[in-house]
Amino acid sequence: QVQLVESGGGLVQAGGSLRLSCAASGRTFNNIGWFRQAPGKEREFVSSISWTGEITNYAQSVKGRFTISRDDAKNTVYLQMNSLKPEDTAVYYCAARSGASLKYAYWGQGTQVTVSS
User: Fold this and answer.
1) N or C, which terminus of the chain has less Cβ within 10 Å?
2) Rg, Å, the chain Cα set
């Protein structure tokens, strides 16, 4: 059974940091991505990492502030978020792709990140 379990969300003041975790299990994935959805807005891409860790991508809005990484031994992907802004407030989801698919077919339940001004 495929499972993606996010953790690490919370309330932080602007300028602060949080680290989100996504623990993946159930099959081999070729890519793990982070997405977020703020109230009243469309879900948007934040960052992604290939399972080899060689390829990372970031949305322009988070470049230089967020860092994605992975821990092979724990089958976990992290999103280190620094210099947080109120506009980063959203529910953050991790998602996974497997095989040759370019579609994120597997999703976690989400974790709330709230940045106060």
Assistant:
1) N
2) 13
**pLDDT for 51 beyond 90:** no
* pLDDT grade for 63, boundaries at 50, 70 and 90: very high
Distance (Å, whole) CA 12 – CA 83: 10
55 contacts 47 by C-beta, under 8 angstroms: no
Contacts 24+ apart (CB under 8 A), 37-46: 37/90, 37/91, 37/93, 37/110, 38/87, 38/89, 38/90, 38/91, 41/90, 43/93, 46/79, 46/92
Rounded Cα gap, residues 11 and 61, in angstroms: 20
Residue 99: pLDDT over 90: no
The SS3 call for residue 67 is strand
CA 105/CA 24 separation, integer angstroms: 13
What pLDDT shows up at residue 18? 98
